[in-house]
């Protein structure tokens, strides 16, 4: 990003908090003109934990995640906090084999940032704030939840879920799956790579969203104009392909548990096939068959 000196000055004077990530994945906040200390201030704790405030969690690439490691880092929630977290509360009464080998990060209130640089699988759920979820390698499920969230997939075949708010979704490389439940808001999908599948769920019987072109974007709109899905640069070369499925059915809690069960089994197979610290790539693995099954 090229920013002029004048432009940078305007940004700094606006009061925006600028966060910087160094080459080792550590996060810092840029001081403003009123700061007594003009040095970069680290904002990621050595032992990251999930709280009701603004959390910043970075999971390094070389850390193999399992229950022991996650407990050590306080990334799994205490029983008291589980009551306030969507997915942890849903899963606690379910018997899912190998679930303790699958990182499930359930955020709470606050505007949180999670960056998972790990090559394995994970399930990351946003909380009540405006959250930013970023993954790099592996295959992941990212759930926007409440607030206006930003989800960034990585190299794998990721699943990005939105059912409330004005969310921004970018699956990155791989053949990604977007699950968007009808709600009041505008969703932006910005993914120029892979063969992607977009499920729009929760439509009324016989309802079909209208489609129009806005410059290089495709814009899908509900009949009452309160729900909009914008696919950025769909008509710009080079471009990704999208299979768009409009469904009356919605992804139930039981279906979500079933999908996480499928990922937990795959994750266990990946961990058992590790060579040293390297996981098999499994580029062709996808959750598309089981998701399609639950929406048919």
UniProtKB/TrEMBL annotation:
It comes from Proteus penneri. The keyword Hydrolase does not apply. Pfam families: HemolysinCabind. One of its GO terms (cellular component) is extracellular region. It is found in: Secreted. This is Hemolysin, plasmid. The keyword S-adenosyl-L-methionine does not apply. GO terms for molecular function: calcium ion binding. Its main location: secreted. Keywords: Calcium, Secreted. Signal peptide: none annotated.
């Amino acid at each position: 990003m090229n920013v002029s000196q004048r432009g940078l000055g305007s940004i700094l004077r606006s009061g925006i908090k600028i966060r910087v990530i160094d080459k080792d994945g550590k996060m810092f906040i840029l001081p403003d003109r009123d700061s007594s200390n003009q040095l970069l201030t680290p904002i990621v704790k050595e032992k990251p934990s999930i709280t009701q405030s603004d959390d910043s969690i970075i999971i390094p690439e070389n850390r193999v995640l399992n229950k022991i490691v996650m407990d050590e880092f306080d990334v799994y929630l205490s029983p008291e906090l589980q009551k306030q977290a969507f997915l942890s509360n849903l899963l606690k009464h379910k018997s899912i084999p190998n679930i303790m080998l699958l990182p499930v990060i359930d955020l709470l209130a606050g505007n949180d940032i999670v960056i998972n640089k790990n090559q394995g699988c994970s399930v990351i759920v946003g909380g009540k704030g405006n959250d930013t979820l970023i993954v790099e390698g592996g295959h992941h499920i990212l759930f926007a939840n409440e607030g206006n969230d930003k989800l960034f997939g990585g190299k794998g075949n990721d699943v990005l879920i939105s059912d409330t708010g004005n969310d921004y979704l970018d699956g990155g490389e791989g053949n990604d799956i977007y699950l968007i439940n009808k709600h009041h808001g505008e969703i932006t999908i910005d993914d120029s790579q892979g063969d992607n599948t977009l499920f729009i769920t929760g439509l009324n019987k016989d309802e079909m969203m209208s489609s129009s072109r806005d410059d290089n974007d495709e814009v899908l709109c509900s009949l009452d104009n309160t729900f909009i899905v914008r696919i950025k640069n769909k008509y710009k070369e080079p471009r990704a392909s999208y299979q768009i499925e409009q469904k009356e059915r919605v992804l139930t809690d039981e279906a979500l548990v079933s999908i996480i069960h499928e990922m937990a089994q795959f994750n266990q197979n990946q961990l058992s096939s590790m060579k040293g610290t390297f996981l098999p790539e499994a580029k062709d693995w996808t959750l598309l068959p089981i998701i399609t099954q639950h929406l048919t």
